[in-house]
Give the backbone structure.
Amino acid sequence: MAPPPDYYEVLGVSRSATSDEIKKAFRRVAMESHPDRNPGDAAAEARFKEASEAFAVLSDDEKRRRYDRMGHSAFQSAGGGTPYERIDFSSFGEILEGLFGDILGGRRKGRVGGDIEVEVTVSFEESALGAEKTIAIERRQSCSTCAGSGAAEGSRVSPCAACQGRGEVRLQRGFFSVSRPCTSCGGTGRRIEKPCPTCAGDGSVPSSEELRVVVPAGVEDGSVRTLKGAGERGQAGAGDLHVVIRVAPHPLFQRDGADVRVDVPISFPQAVLGAQIDVPTLEGKVKMRIPAGTQSGKVFRLRGKGIPVLGGYGKGDQLVKVVVEVPDKINKTQRKLIEELAAEMGEDVHPQRKGFLDKLRELFE
Ligand SMILES: [Zn+2]
Ligand SMILES: [Zn+2]
């Protein structure tokens, strides 16, 4: 197979061409070589394909940089094939329509159904561990009375006379052939003698349905799951369903990437003497040892008790911040003991306080 031609040569521009120059050059080449204007001309079609491929790469800053650096190998996978097949052309139709408007417009047969967006709220635990949710959606379904044809029982569906069933009308305007969606049939290419009473000739009816949606473990608030083809049904295919996942806040846990943060109160004696405490995790309570002399605010890490890494391997950790609580009410005995403790320790011997006073002195001397 011959090596693919240089993209800049295909469009006839220099390597330093601006995006505007590239757009203009592509428009010129595509106008000359468009298959609609050169029916049966294989060379013109090949040229149009080459130009489209070159434009798809050079009009995208990221892809252009990669191509400049690595040439065609930037878009070649181990599987071979031409780059044309592997470049994402999903938005390319829109680019062409934006560039050429009427000249390429109206080529689509019928309309594609619209996309639907729904929100589903999951609990913090469900977002971390995964869940299956039922969602209710409203979408258009193929009409069961007429099996989607739009015609009443016994009535005929014939090709539209105005466009000969093509759904578009083509007009020769000097140099250009301009096509527009046919107005007599609304672009469907069909003429219905008597419309179906259930769907008024549309072929589809609104319906509400329930769908099961799998919420993967590790999903984040605001992330979107797209179910291809689960949107509105149209004559040229169904749109997509976008499920926006909302994660409800949790009273104890906070998410930090794949880690879970939680604050756990401990008492002054526990902090001083050390203790074994219960810590809540996503999978229930676990025991955690606190060493003697733990300062308030110290963070302990429970490995692997966090959230699974979405689409990856492993889990995050749970970060437990211990907060030493000061009791707001104490009884007489406790008061007496604490007063004795204070007398025993004395104000100046507390290590952290001493450090603090030293620092204060350094600051002002
Ligand atoms: Zn028509
Ligand atoms: Zn119907």
